[in-house]
Amino acid sequence: GILHFIAVASLLALPLVARPRLALGLGVALILLGMHVSHPFFDQPWIHWLGLMTHKPTTDDYVPIVPWLGVVLIGIAAGHWLQGPQAQALRRYTIDHAPARLLAAAGRHGLIIYLLHQPILFGSVALAAAP
Questions:
Q1: What tens digit of pLDDT does each residue of 43-100 get?
Q2: Of 7, 43, 53, 73, which is the most exposed, with the fewest CB atoms less than 10 Å away?
Q3: How high is the pLDDT of residue 36?
Q4: CA angle centred on 65, ends 78 and 116, rounded to 5°
Q5: Same domain for 56 and 109?
Q6: Peptide linkage before 131 cis (omega within 30 of 0)
Q7: Nearest-angstrom CA–CA distance, 77 and 27
Q8: Same domain, 69 and 29
Q9: Looking at the 3D structure of the chain, how many domains does it have?
Q10: What are phi and psi of 19, to 5 degrees?
Q11: Do 103 and 125 lie in a common domain?
């Protein structure tokens, strides 16, 4: 699921944090690989996690390494770019009003929100469906 992907992607991406150009190149390559390569060999359940199978497994929480690690790697490159001088114009936008501060706080606490949203949704549905 998504939590497994986040853990694995964090470990795989760590060596590329200091190499944004390589991260960008590999990220684009992984996305293109995911868009254009599939093979029945990868239909075996033990390697579904790679993402190169010919059909999606029957689950709603499927986040394969290919292509999604590519998105993480492009994010590393984007983070470096946003810290460089070429993104100076973007820095003038600050978080000085309540909706933006709320959105920033949600971004900093995304895992907690992710873990809490299901019990809240299930509880809401149970209350709404109760006679």
A1: 898 988 899 999 888 888 889 999 999 999 999 999 999 888 877 777 677 777 788 8
A2: 7
A3: 95
A4: 80
A5: no
A6: no
A7: 9
A8: yes
A9: 2
A10: -130, 70
A11: yes
